[in-house]
Amino acid sequence: MRVEFINPFISATLDVFKTMLGCTLVRGPLSLKREHTPAHEVSGLIGLSGKCRGMIVVSLGRETAIRAAEIMLGARPDEVDRDVMDAIGELTNMIAGAAKTQLEEYRLTIGLPTVICGKNQVITFPSETQPLAIPFDSEIGPVSVQVGLVEMLVPVA
Length: 157
What we know:
It is built from three helices and eight strands; from the N terminus they run αββββααββββ. It is an alpha+beta fold and 157 residues long. Strands 1, 2, 3, 4, 5, 6, 7 and 8 form an eight-stranded antiparallel beta sheet that branches. Helix 1 packs across helix 3 (82-102).
């Protein structure tokens, strides 16, 4: 995966969490994502296509996801429910959309967000991608963004 694909997702994540949650994220070291399990219990996934193909996963711990939904909704959910899942889906959508704007030369389209919950979920990125994991820490808890994006090769005419 090309390094210039990562910075738009980092800046989009920082901006969305600051704007929507009033939350400052502190980025940890990047690493290759080798396992197929999400970093945390609640994960929003969105597919990307266009001149590049891949996926972004925004993964939050259970309590972090509930806290994020509480900030967005103005009321604290008792558990990871439909409202929490919708909030995480919306955060994922905003991050993907903001990154897409910064990568406009690749004419990306973003799919609809899917939210999965649980410790034993499996996430499979497109086979030609090697996803990178971007961990963050914050006052509301841990967040991880995984990005797997590969430029599509166009045959020379």
